[in-house]
Amino acid sequence: MYFAGVDIGSTMTKVMIMAEDERTCSQVIGPTGAEHRRLANKVMEEALQQANLPFDEISYVVATGYGRVNVPFADRQITELTCHAKGVSSLFPNVRTAIDIGGQDAKGMKINQGNLVDFAMNDKCAAGTGRFLEVISDALGIKVEDLGKISLKSTKKVEISSVCTIFAQQEVISHLSEGTPLEDIVAGLHDAIAGRVVRMVKRLKIEPDVVLTGGVAKNVGVVRAIRENLGCELLVPEDPLLTGALGAAILGKEIVLKALAKGEAIPRKGRRLEEATFFN
Amino acid sequence: MAKESKGLTKVKEIYQDRPRRVKELKAEGRKVIGYLCAYPVLEMMTALDLVPYRVLGNMREPITKADACLPTMVCPFLRSSLDLALKDEYEFLDGMAMAHICDVGERMAHIWKTYRHYPYFYFMDVPHTVHKAALEKFKEEIKGFKKSLESFTRKELSSEKLKKAIKVHNDQRTLVRELYDLRKPDPPLVSATQVLQVMLALESIPVEEGNELLREVIDEIKERQEGPQKQAARLLIWGSIIDDVSLIETIESVGANIVMDDICVGTRFYWPEVEITQDPLDGLAYRYLVGIKCPRTCREVISDQTKKAYAADLENRFGYLKDYIKAWNVNGVILQSVRYCDTHGYEVPAVRDYLNSLGLPNTYLEHDYSQGSLAPLRTRIQAFLEILG
User: Fold this and answer.
1) Is the pLDDT of residue B242 over 50?
2) Residue numbers in A near B386 (CB within 8 A)
3) Per-residue pLDDT, A280
4) Pick the CATH number of A2-84+242-261 from 3.40.47.10, 3.30.420.40, 3.30.70.260, 3.90.1640.10
5) Is A278 helix (H, G, I), strand (E, B) or coil?
6) What pLDDT digit, counting tens, does each position of A223-279 carry?
7) Residue range B185-204: average pLDDT?
8) Looking at chain A, which residues constitute the CATH 3.30.420.40 domain(s)?
9) Which of residues 52-71 of A touch B (CB under 8 A)?
10) Mean per-residue pLDDT for A17-40?
């Protein structure tokens, strides 16, 4: 049997196809863009091609992420909070706290034996999300991917006092004009985003093991800054973007196995592999 | 003239056009007094043939005028209600009965007086504690309220009239409990959305008409076949005022039945009855100051900093929730408040501690009192329901 997890985030869409033994058959990451309704099936098709599987061989599809309601071929939609908790637990069995920093949101999850037990979310304010780094790197004229290694060169990070992304941008520009070294500014920004996220997650009473996921986890500077702010070890998976889709696929497997154990039919709801329209 | 609608159809009509009835009554010569919160004594207004009318906001109406009169950190509910007043939506009122409800509500009283000029305006101080001295002080305050109403209507508010009014209002409270009993079965016989519409309708029409409406509604619900579907989650909703069905609808549409509440248009407003005392003012003062369980009233009595003392204090403040949870078979609580509501925001940690001590899953949603703020809540609500399993 094969299971698919489709994670439509605000910035990136991730699909993972998994076999019953939880071996990854294929994984695809692509930008969500403005037309995510039209996109989910295309990314799914790519994943199926990579795995060399027809759509009919997928036993169950779980959709997650903010675009999860626009996946007509999904059998179930489950929030990214539950899916991330499941995905992270399969990679790090001792995880108690997971932090996910996405393109436009940040989440803290409290986990007990693979299950979500509590959560905190920020999806209102760009500061503390990937968007913050995008805006600032734009203002600095550097690529987002380079931010991390630049910040590691810093010996004296600056203090960014603004809570708002736009005002932080202003602070950055005035630092630049004063001749502050770029790496110190970038380190300060990483500290700012780390501080915000950790403050939000602290509402959950942080317990190790702590795992960081999401696109921003690929930034070594942010990882370092979060470690400092947390004051404890921080684990990062090899593919920090895929834990949502992974968790979704695992949950699909759990749903199917549970139904089969009870002698019930597999509770499929998904239709054909097609793009979402407004009449779904 | 169209056939007079009844029961839930009538409730919906009232909900969609709340001032209609009081405007009709005004045309007949009745006087309408607006109030913002649960503290102005309704019985006194009813006893003098005044029609009490609950002033609310409108979360679907963008705030355009109130910003010029208010600082930033005023909760959007009070901001909206003032905005509507400034847009002349409350010109049909003959007066406002204001009280010291919360800090912002207290200031609001004076701001309303500045911008609206009603024939009747009264401000009542409400102590924030329930000690003996506070109760005595509050009795003096409602005495003052009574005198002001007598002066406005040029009628005497006799003990007898007051006792009659107390009975009618107590009858409504009994009927509301009967309605809420219909939420105990699984699935509940009526959705929280419809119950909220009933509550808001009751707060827009005279008490006797409300009682008749309640009897119709209760019978209708008992007889009808269509009601909510069974859901795994049976929730209690706690917190700030909810004066629009959209938040409730959002929660129920994600896949839950809200079977009980602890909000001021629901149980806080209706549960406490007025005890019939020799001097009716005693029963009234007690019911309004001590009976109404709102966080704006402080009941903390921590004798020391031990865990035991804290647990005892929580039980004293929130034990009534345990009774609701048991009787309505609640398996999860959603705490909610509007942004800037200090009254509820500061209370949340203690309520959550109490619910956690009962082993009851709970989550806290802060919202902006606007249609747009509801969509992000869906994910949180759904995740909470996924935790409930």
Assistant:
1) yes
2) 78-79, 81-82, 116
3) 47
4) 3.30.420.40
5) coil
6) 999 999 999 999 999 999 999 999 999 999 999 999 999 998 888 887 777 776 655
7) 97
8) 2-84+242-261, 96-235
9) 66
10) 86
Residue in the block written with tokens 């995740």: B383
Interface of B to A at Cβ within 8 Å reads: 363, 376, 379-380, 382-383, 386-387
pLDDT at A69 over 50: yes
Inter-chain touch B383–A116, beta carbons under 8 Å: yes
Mutation test of the interface with chain B: which of A81, A122, A129, choosing the one with the most B Cβ atoms within 10 A?
Answer: A81
The arithmetic mean of pLDDT across residues A35-48, rounded, is 83
Specify whether the CB–CB gap between A237 and A211 falls below 8 A: yes
**What domains does chain B contain, in order, with CATH numbers?**
19-157 (3.40.50.11890), 163-388 (3.40.50.11900)
Q: What is the mean pLDDT of residues A115-137?
A: 88
Q: What is the pLDDT of residues A191-216, one digit of tens each?
A: 999 999 999 999 898 999 999 999 99
Predicted complex ipTM: 0.89
Task: Summarize chain A as % helix, strand, coil (round to 5).
Answer: 45, 20, 35
- pTM for this structure? 0.91
CB contact under 8 A, B386 and A124: no
- A123 CB near a chain B CB, below 8 Å? yes
In single-letter form, the type of residue at position B312 comes to A
Q: Would you give the DSSP letter of residue A37?
A: H
Q: For the domain A96-235, what is the CATH superfamily, name and number?
A: ATPase, nucleotide binding domain (3.30.420.40)
